[in-house]
């Protein structure tokens, strides 16, 4: 295929960096609410929700990786116009692909804003009670902008460094919380209809939001890097962490108690004691790790939006730097849009459904059109050969 439009930085990310990027993006604000949201409909079986809900996520990341392998070195912004218009009708392809590209960028933009708002709500509630919410949100945005001022290889290195610093402490805290486990709390294993289980699993989508950034970042994988493998590793690690946290919440508190707590994972950490009194207040360490996790989620999402705009408008690094500063203002107003925590949680549910459209339906349509075009070319070659 044509090499036109490839970024000079392609072949940048290793398998480890791709896995780090996906996992660091997925593990974020969803960690704090997942034990409550999964047990709302599935009760004791809530720990199954991340496992069942990940089926769609695995399929989506496979689709995204397949599209990226078909167009190596190109992002979704670049190959979408090729899918819709081919190499011959690039102008038509641009206009037909524009709605899909804008839906992707806007959805990712809103998701990033709402993630920052949830982060602010938790910090104001649990740590900095006298600090205005707006200050917390802007602080996170400033960090994201600083990362956007650099090229994409810097993003890869930041995620690579923070990944183990996020993953291992969260795993340690989750395992330590099993000291107070009452395993009877997960019995009976299944007492709700399968329809309810499927619905509950589907509603975990917000916790898996973020992997759609690979529509941009898979383009920068090293040529020997298995994109499907990186995607499966990243999501598999996230599923394991989520399942462990939800299971810990259920066996410690029970599903009824989880429904009365706004941030159940934070309460779980508060009730956990580390043997040997290494840390007297474990939630302080957890929140420090969680801040890093949310930063990678917000920064990766915002970087993908800015970089996508840069490619859509065919601009350079100067545009990326200016846009990252300018767009922080609408991002802030979207973040403070929900008037209270109830509206915020409704917005997260809506985002979960939107994510399915952006990360599953859109790539699926692109893939089907690509298959149709490839089949048409084969027919033309066959008829020419017989002619």
From TrEMBL:
Transmembrane segments: 12-35, 47-71, 92-119, 131-149, 161-178, 198-220, 232-254, 285-306, 318-338, 350-372
Keywords, comma-separated and alphabetical: Germination, Membrane, Transmembrane, Transmembrane helix, Transport
Domain of life: Bacteria
InterPro entries: Spore_GerAB
Main location class: membrane
GO process terms (BP): spore germination
Subcellular location: Membrane
Gene Ontology cellular-component terms listed: membrane
Membrane topology: Multi-pass membrane protein
Pfam family, one: Spore_permease
Family indicated by similarity: Belongs to the amino acid-polyamine-organocation (APC) superfamily. Spore germination protein (SGP) (TC 2.A.3.9) family.
Record's protein name: Spore germination protein
Organism: Brevibacillus borstelensis AK1
């Amino acid at each position: 295929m044509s090499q036109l439009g490839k970024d000079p930085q392609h072949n940048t990310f290793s398998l480890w960096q791709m896995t780090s990027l996906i996992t660091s993006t997925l593990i974020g604000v969803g960690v704090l609410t997942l034990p409550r949201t999964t047990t709302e409909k599935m009760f004791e079986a809530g720990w199954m929700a991340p496992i069942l809900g990940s089926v769609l996520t695995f399929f989506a990341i496979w689709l995204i990786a397949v599209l990226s392998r078909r167009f190596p070195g190109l992002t979704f912004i670049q190959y979408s116009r090729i899918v819709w218009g081919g190499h011959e009708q690039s102008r038509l392809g641009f206009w037909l692909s524009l709605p899909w590209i804008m839906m992707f960028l806007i959805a990712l933009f809103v998701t990033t804003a709402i993630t920052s708002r949830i982060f602010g709500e938790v910090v104001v509630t649990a740590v900095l009670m006298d600090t205005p919410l707006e200050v917390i949100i802007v602080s996170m945005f400033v960090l994201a902008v600083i990362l956007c001022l650099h090229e994409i290889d810097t993003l890869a290195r930041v995620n690579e460094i923070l990944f183990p610093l996020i993953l291992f402490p969260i795993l340690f805290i989750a395992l330590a919380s099993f000291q107070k486990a009452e395993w009877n709390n997960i019995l009976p294993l299944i007492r709700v209809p399968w329809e309810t289980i499927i619905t509950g699993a589907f509603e975990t989508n917000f916790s898996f939001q973020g992997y759609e950034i690979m529509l941009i970042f898979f383009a920068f994988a090293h040529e020997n890097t298995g994109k499907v493998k990186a995607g499966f590793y990243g999501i598999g690690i996230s599923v394991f962490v989520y399942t462990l946290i939800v299971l810990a919440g259920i066996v410690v508190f029970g599903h009824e108690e989880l429904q009365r707590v706004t941030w159940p994972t934070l309460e779980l950490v508060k009730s956990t004691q580390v043997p040997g009194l290494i840390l007297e207040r474990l939630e302080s360490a957890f929140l420090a790790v969680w801040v890093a996790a949310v930063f990678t989620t917000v920064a990766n999402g915002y970087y993908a939006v800015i970089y996508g705009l840069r490619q859509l408008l065919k601009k350079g690094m100067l545009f990326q730097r200016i846009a990252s500063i300018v767009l922080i203002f609408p991002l802030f107003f979207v973040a403070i849009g929900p008037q209270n925590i109830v509206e915020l949680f409704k917005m997260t549910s809506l985002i979960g459904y939107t994510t399915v459209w952006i990360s599953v339906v859109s790539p699926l349509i692109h893939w089907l059109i690509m298959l149709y075009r490839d089949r048409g070319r084969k027919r033309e070659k066959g008829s020419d050969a017989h002619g």
